[in-house]
Amino acid sequence: MSDEEHHFESKADAGASKTYPQQAGTIRKNGYIVIKARPCKVVEVSTSKTGKHGHAKCHFVAIDIFNGKKLEDIVPSSHNCDVPHVNRTDYQLIDISEDGFVSLLTENGNTKDDLKLPTDENLLAQIKDGFGEGKDLVVTVMSAMGEEQICALKDIGPK
């Protein structure tokens, strides 16, 4: 034991990790996986037989949950893959600003003003039309790996 003081600078952010490991062979269709550092929803899984030199391989076809791009990956089934922590939260829509940002009411009564309108044309039209008609709208925000995006809309009646 030394009596010197050591000071360490933390480079990582505190709190939970953005991903957790899961064995590739246990990941199923409609589950989540990280491919090329993007959180994805698995749409297809196929497993090859063990070859002369080793492991069975899992071939994943997945869609990026934020931009809709199709990604593929092949991983030995005994190896670990990163799986993103995906959360869905409902917020009530209060306002839509001119620059495309939305104002949302959180459960504790605060407002959340850092989200943009979704890029999906259909969902965007539904939100704008419903808001224009003065309806009470609840949007579902999906968050994973430090990104957030509006992914669904519910109409809870007129104001």
From TrEMBL:
Domain Translation initiation factor 5A C-terminal: start-end pairs: 85-154
GO biological process: positive regulation of translational elongation; positive regulation of translational termination
Keyword Protein biosynthesis in record: yes
Post-translational modification note: eIF-5A seems to be the only eukaryotic protein to have a hypusine residue which is a post-translational modification of a lysine by the addition of a butylamino group.
InterPro entries hit by this protein: IF5A-like, IF5A-like_N, IF5A_C, NA-bd_OB-fold, Rib_uL2_dom2, Trans_elong_IF5A_hypusine_site, Translation_prot_SH3-like_sf
SMART domains in UniProt: eIF-5a
Family membership noted in the UniProt record: Belongs to the eIF-5A family.
Name of the molecule in the record: Eukaryotic translation initiation factor 5A
Organism for this UniProt entry: Acorus calamus (Sweet flag)
